[in-house]
Write a structure and sequence with these properties.
Layout (H helix, E strand, L loop, with lengths): L9 H15 L12 H15 L3 H8 L18 H4 L5 H10 L1 H23 L2
Helix pairs in contact: 1-5, 1-6, 2-3, 2-5
Length: 125
Amino acid sequence: MINDFATDNQASATAALLVYAAYRSRDQRRFKASTDMWAKIERFVKAAAKRAESLPRFLENLKPRLSCPNVRPSTLKPVSLADLQAPSDTPAVLAVLYKETAWVILLVRDRLERERAANYNKENN
């Protein structure tokens, strides 16, 4: 488990963290949950990754599509921005975002479900 995502692949975990951070930082009034929300997010991620040459550029491409005015630093925990800036990993992460988009979305959704279950258990205990 890397970055609290159910994977041992660093590039997949970094890709999932970027999508997770943008998703959790979105304006929920403008980009509401719906039955086809994750299909839209998958398309948005693929399109953003296709045109990106760096991880910051990927985030800049993805943010407007998710109605994300800015990424909240708290969503990047437990990773620091310095950890995400390794230029040698950038091509691998962008490849995962573009070629394995469904897997990245599954990692994000799995983490969100585990967090929701943990929050539910905290509230009911």
